[in-house]
Amino acid sequence: MTKNKNRISQLLNNDKIVFAIAFFSAIIIWLAVVINVSPETTRVIQNVKVTIDNTVPSQFGLEVFGDTEFYVDVTVKGKKYQISSTNLSADDIIILAQTNNVDSAGMRTLILKPESSSGSAEYTVSAISQKSIDVYFDVPKTIQMVIEPEVIAKDFEIVKDGFQTGDVNLSETSVSVTGPATEINKIEKAVARLTLEGSLSSNKSADAEIILLDENKKSNFKFVKTNINSVVLTIPVLRVKEVNTTVLFKNAPDEYVLNPLSYTISPSKDYFNISVDEFDKTTEFSVGTIDFKSVSPSNYVFEFIRTDLPVSDESGTEKFVVNLDVSNLSQDYFVISGNKVKVNNPDNLNYKISGLNKSVVIVGSEKALESITEDDITVEIDISTLNISAGQTTTVPANVTVKSTNCWVYGTYIVEVSL
Predict the structure, then answer these.
(1) CB 400 within 8 A of CB 377
(2) CA 57 → CA 94, 140, 178, distances in Å?
(3) Between 170 and 119, whose confidence is greater?
(4) ∠383-389-393 over CA atoms, to 5°?
(5) Quick one: pLDDT at residue 121?
(6) How far apart, in whole angstroms, are the C-alpha atoms of residue 311 and residue 166?
(7) What's the pLDDT at 323?
(8) Which of 159, 158, 140, 142 shows the shortest CA–CA distance to 150?
(9) Which residues of 183-198 are buried (b: 16+ CB within 10 A; e: fewer)?
(10) How confident is the model at residue 6 (pLDDT cuts 50, 70, 90)?
(11) pLDDT band at 19; cut points 50, 70, 90
């Protein structure tokens, strides 16, 4: 006991130790005074986010459109240490936009109510920079719309004298529009608008802005959005030129690809609207395509209508008549039985396949037909997507081909299928 007293006495006689004890004691007393006696003060906390409670509106299928994020400045009151920046930030305060009465579409004024995120009562909100916000509610809706091209030439013609425009093309033909149902229902059409700066004498391609219009051709939609904002609009520029008329062929045997059937076209020349890019090198224009499956010794005259072609107004032609030279052609007939029909039947259903509805007509030169046999003819059908019930019968198209470089199958064929 005496030793302990001596040690304490020695410590108290040490000026440095006494000073340290006094210093720390003063700090403790100062903290106690600050905490318990400190006067209240105020502080402004900026950019406190507003929370919009969508619980009630969602019950009516309503969502917020337009601005969804709002911020206010909040004035808080409390003891200085409690509302200091180290103890209180914008994240600790909730500003709730009240939506209890939002039950229909429209612009609504929501009263703002401040709360503490931690539920602390050690400070109070004495003021906020605004007491309400205006928010638009509506039912969401999405539609697909066809885009119409709209070319604007203010005080001049779209093309210069001697030129014409072809069909305007768009890189995208439809647009997805999303927004509040009230606005969506007012949209009449979507246009891709391009304003020209002068008349054209060459093809024009440029970005055209997507614009939504109402019945009055006004674009006054605040909250709708589109999946694309622009498309590439192309204006073909054409010039009139008189050129020879020609015709194309498809499904031709190899020999007739290299040596096409001879033909005549009436008229043999005519006036067509030719793209300016192809104008100088264009010497002929195809008036149509003839399928070899439709060519036989008895079927060799084909007509193509003017309205389906870019014929100039300078032409008086209403139709183009193509007359094929079939003087060297003959035809032969082959009966194909049902058991020779190849069937695509991945599910191995028990279908009954009848023969073709008619004899297969093979066309070619008389000499070429002499080498054709039934084994050279293939008949294929696809019943993988056929949907019939037991006892029912239907017909399916048959793909009939012949193994030959100078003969072809004339006509179309069907096969009867029963389950």
Answers:
(1) yes
(2) 20, 12, 19
(3) 170
(4) 65
(5) 61
(6) 11
(7) 98
(8) 158
(9) bbebbeebbbbbebee
(10) low
(11) low
From 281, 270, 284, 275, select the one nearest 238 (Cα to Cα): 275
pLDDT computed for residue 264 by the predictor? 97
* Pairwise CA distance, residues 362 & 151, whole Å: 53
Answer whether 286's CB lies under 8 Å from 311's CB. Answer: no
pLDDT band at 240 (very low <50, low <70, confident <90, very high): very high
- Using pLDDT thresholds of 50, 70 and 90, give the confidence band for residue 18: low
Residue recorded with tokens 């067509």: 272
* Tokens found for residue 92: 């600790």
Contact 80, 41 (CB under 8 A): yes
- Taking only the tens place, the pLDDT of each residue in 108-141 is 999 999 876 555 567 888 889 999 999 999 999 9
Asked whether the whole model's pTM tops 0.85, one would answer no
pLDDT at 376 over 60: yes
